Amino acid sequence: MQLAFRFALGLGLVGLSLATLSAPPAISAPGVSYDIVYVRQPRKGDSTHTVWPEVFHPGTLEPGSDLMLLHPNGTEEVLVDTTNGAVTDPFISFDGQYVFYALYPDVTPGQLNTQRGNLPYQGADIYRLHLGTRQTQRLTFQEFTPNAGAGNWLESNPVNPPASYNRLGYGILNLGPAPLPGGKIIFTSNRNGFIPPKGYTNPTLQLFVMDWDGNNVTAIAPLTIGSTLHPTPLADGRVMFSSFETQGLRDSRNWGLWAIKPDGRTWEPLVSSFKEAGSFHFATQLGDGDIVVEDYYNLNNWGFGALYRFPTGFAAGMARFHPASVNQNPPITQTVGAGFVYPFRMPFTPKGLYSITPFTTAADEAAPCPGGVPSCSNVLRLGKFTHPSAAPNNDLLVAYTAGPANALDRPDDLPAVDAGLYLIPGGDPVNSPSQLVLIKNLPQYNEVWPRAVVSYAAVHGVGQPAELPWLPNDGAEHPDLLPAGTPYGLIGTSSFYKRESFPGNNPNNRWGGLDAFNTAENGQSFNWFEQGAEAGRYTDADIWAVRVLLMEPNTHRSYGPHSGQHFFNWVNEKLRILGEIPLRKFDAQGNPILDPEGNPDTSFLARVPADTPLTFQMLDRNGMVLTMAQTWHQVRPGEARYDCGGCHAHSQQPLDFEQTAAAQPGYPVLDLSKVTPLLTHDGDGNPVTRTVSAPIANVEFYRDVRPILQTQCVSCHTGTNPPGNLRLDDVALYDIGDFTYLSAPGDYMRLCRDQGATWGYPPLVAYGGDAYWRQTNASRYVRLFQSRRSLLIWKIFGARLDGWTNADHPTESVPGNAATLPPGAQINDADLDFIPSSAHPAGGMTSLTADQKITFARWIDLGCPINTGQGTADENYGWFLDDVRPTLTVSAPRPGLSHTPLTVIRVGVADAYTGIQPGSLSITATIAVAGRAPGAQLADLAQPTGDGIFTITLPAPLTSASSARLYVQVRDEQGNVTRVARSFSILTQQMFLPLVWR
Q: Own/partner pairs for 766-770, CB < 8 Å, 24+ apart?
């Protein structure tokens, strides 16, 4: 009662002062001697919830959310009066003179597209306001840059162009601006027009960097094809950001905290999301270097949760993360809604991480009651936090609300959130709300997004973060394979023996910690859903090759021609094979070459197109997945990335790549931009490779799988009583379901879309009263991304391949009849057996070639892709659509001001899939170049000087240029266009010195 009285007293006094607009409020933070910028959102009382932007709804805000300036004496000013619009994401410049912010012009109900998640028609743009003069500059202008070959777009109008065009039906969201050293700004935007592969958020926001004046906009993170939010500069020069970690079969509600260099190189995790449905979002760096990040269960908590703190500095050679095993990770204190302390653990916890708000929880439930009691008045509930922000003295500004801070009746969702501004002294743990220092909390508003109006030096002791080199691409990284200006990068690793890809819980169950064959038990294993992606049991000896996969974003043809999606696979991701690279190496005598740790050397190195999302699958001798990296990867032009030192080996010391075979001069580095090596078998069944003379290999049902079914399987699997109760002559179309609005034929559905057991033998497991193929089962015959665990593959290869034997788990003697399980056997422990037959003998179907067999395995390990537009007007907008724009890099001139004469214009072009369209390169400039007038075409002067590199050698060095622009454009065969608008100036030393002397 004492705590509640204190809050009530403070609210009344502050509210009276502002209502009369006279004397300053009586409540202000003791010792806070600086102004605070914050966002004031209208509040509708205790009984009505307001709209909150969070990871599920990053584009929805409460109308009338104004940008405010609060002074130490409690008076305040309105910096941006929005009326129908809303301000969000304020960030203070390093000198403390400016505030960056995102402004939504109109978010009233009539200006929202209710068919598209209430996204606003007018979008949002980024502004910079000078706090001294109140002068405002707009930096973005609803720029729309979709993949031109993936739709018919009017780039000047993403919202409502004529009906012949595709359209998003909502505006462009330019959000999360933050300053960077060197006069740059990082932000997020959906200007590329993508939609996340999974639901639970919309649209796809990606990372961009621009100059202080809005020029030289560069997409630095093509790998963020899920979405990303709120980039924040770190003292070491990197940027941390929240990333939607939905790749593969992972829980589609998880957001992790990542770091990346401002030019897009060297991305890595800070806090990976290995906590079920957990979002690590809203983060800051304290003055001592520690990071504070919020954890909340998305959607239902309006972005409110608990705060964790962890260090960034570690001794050389020290791993930054705990192991994959949950039990080897420290407990993180939280107090659950029932009122008692119940710590949680998660794999790969950053070392040194602890909760600074242990009295509350990030879970999907009401905040706990005071005193550890299980129930109380919801007014008294201890509340949750959001929007942490560093302040002087290592203090932490936060937005905090008392009450349940949860939208569900657990046990009640009221009173509605009443957020105010508070301070956590020293960023240290607070054990109750009474330890928070109240700054401002009015009942008629939610005060959020506090930012101390001070210089960076006042918080961190230095004038700005470290300034890192900007994408050199000068040939120094790897001169022979990555010459200056290259559009390619190198990707590799030192070992696949050094790995922690295994799941981190239940290691002692009947499945060795892996996902059960089929079980009614929820949360039985982390495998594939949170952490780990193991396809059955295997040993190091099974590791044979790595598959490099191209990954594509999904263009949002929201309305208009060919609207929607016209392909299906189980993860809604188009995965194409760039190559399958054998890992084992042998000397002239046939002995295995060992790495420095005494293991067989499994290093590799390959060249790939830069700015192209990638991922990896580890393969056995049959080309089947052993484990999969459920994470997006990329390299920027000229970047060599082989420093991971293993496969998800976060808690281990990396094996030095330079000491492995792949780093030695004689290693044959594969160029996956030109050819595609694929695993096959020789006549004796030994694994070998064949090479496809194309940059990628596709696998799809209609083109690659059905023809084999028709010639090899349908003759038996037909009629009303087919073998195995599997009919494969059904080509009628059926609804795929799950709101996909797509259809697939009966042969596909029986093999790979039958979780509800519509056809064939039913499963033993019932879920919700219905028989169901759960876990990663797509049907009785196919296990997603796990060909080794799929009955279909066992039948084709003539062996059980998942590392278990028939005797390891019980199986019913009559398919689908639980009563025929062995006595005492449990349904959740059961699996299927492989029993040879004349049609499917031990050793495999002799009527199939090795390549045909491996085709089935690849199809399963790519998520069962099918071009659902097959045979329709949408056929070319499905699985085979190239949705990655070409790589285009301009390494000379450099962006911004240069004091060195310009002697060459150098560009690099490449494309990962359909290839560069001949003659599509365009180069123009706003100044005279090589004797040609401003605006004249220069591409014919560009001479090839390397693979994909084109150079214009200037007749005379350019020694002077002011605010010049170079416009470069290239197109791929799909029709996708990449453009670079390079703004640059040249002021040479010879010109500069006389100005100094005068």
A: 766/520, 767/520
Nearest Cα to Cα of residue 780 among 821, 726, 854? 726
At residue 581, φ and ψ (nearest 5 deg) are -110, 115
% of the chain beyond a pLDDT of 90: 88
Nearest to 653 by CA among 919, 975, 314: 314
- Secondary structure of residue 995 in the 3-state scheme: helix
CA–CA gap between residue 167 and residue 161 (Å, rounded): 7
678: three-class secondary structure by DSSP = strand
- The answer to whether 496 touches 618, Cβ cutoff 8 Å, is yes
Residues 6+ apart with CB under 8 A from 846: none
3-state secondary structure 703-769: HHHHHHHHHHCCCCCCCCCCHHHCCCCCCCEEECCCCCCCEEEHHHHHHHCCCCCCCCCCCCCEECC
3-state secondary structure of 576: strand
How many angstroms separate the Cα of 676 from the Cα of each of 618, 697, 853? 16, 7, 18
Give kind and range of the element (H or E) at residue 870: none
Nearest in space to 624 (alpha carbons), one of 860, 386, 937: 860
Burial of 716 (C-beta count, 10 Å sphere; 0-12/13-18/19+): middle
Whole-model pTM: value is: 0.95
Give the Cα separation of 332 and 82 in Å (integer).
Answer: 41
**Which residue in the block uniquely carries the two structure tokens 């799941």?**
503
Asked if residue 415 has a cis previous peptide bond (ω within 30° of 0), the answer is yes
Contact 210, 197 (CB under 8 A): no
- Distance, CA of 817 to chain centre: 42
Contact, 753 vs 744, CB < 8 A? yes
Closest by Cα among 343, 352, 402 to 377: 402
- pLDDT bucket at 29, cuts 50 / 70 / 90: low
| Cβ-contact 62, 87 below 8 angstroms | no
Q: Which residue from 878, 977, 980, 981 is spatially nearest to 147, judged by alpha carbons?
A: 977
pLDDT tens digits for 435-461? 999 999 999 999 999 999 999 999 999
Over 31-49, what HEC string results? CCCCCEEEEEEECCCCCCC
Per-position DSSP letters for 896-916, written without gaps between them: EEESS-EEEEEEEEE-SSS-B
Measuring CA to CA, how many Å separate 163 from each of 154, 167, 559, 560?
11, 9, 9, 6
Would you call 328 helix, strand, or coil by DSSP?
helix
Average pLDDT across the chain, whole number: 93
Quick one: which of 791, 829, 922 has its CA closest to 517? 829
**DSSP character string of 176-241:** EEEEETTTEEEEEE-TT-EE-SSSSS-S--EEEEEETTS-S-EE--TT--S-EEEEEE-TTS-EEE
The contacts found for 870-879 with CB under 8 angstroms, 24 or more apart, are 870/702, 872/566, 873/562, 874/562, 874/566, 875/566, 877/150, 877/557, 877/562, 877/566, 878/565, 878/566, 878/567, 879/566, 879/567, 879/569, 879/574, 879/698, 879/700
Q: For residues 941 and 952, what is the distance between their CA atoms, to the nearest angstrom?
A: 6
Distance CA 617, CA 548 (A): 7
3-state SS assignment for residue 649? coil
- In sequence order, the β-bridge partners of residue 332 are 344
Q: How far apart are CA 565 and CA 899, in angstroms?
A: 49
Whether the CB-CB separation of 739 and 752 falls below 8 Å is answered with no
491 by DSSP, 3-state: which?
strand
Q: Is the confidence at residue 20, as pLDDT, over 80?
A: no
Q: Are 555 and 147 in contact (CB under 8 A)?
A: yes
Half-sphere exposure of residue 920, counting CA atoms within 13 Å on the CB side?
20
Contacts of residue 837, defined as CB under 8 A and 6 or more positions apart, other chains included, come to: none
| Rounded CA separation 138/210 (Å) | 13
Paired tokens of 353: 């991480």
Cβ neighbours of 814 (radius 10 Å): 10
Residue 892 pLDDT greater than 80, yes or no = yes
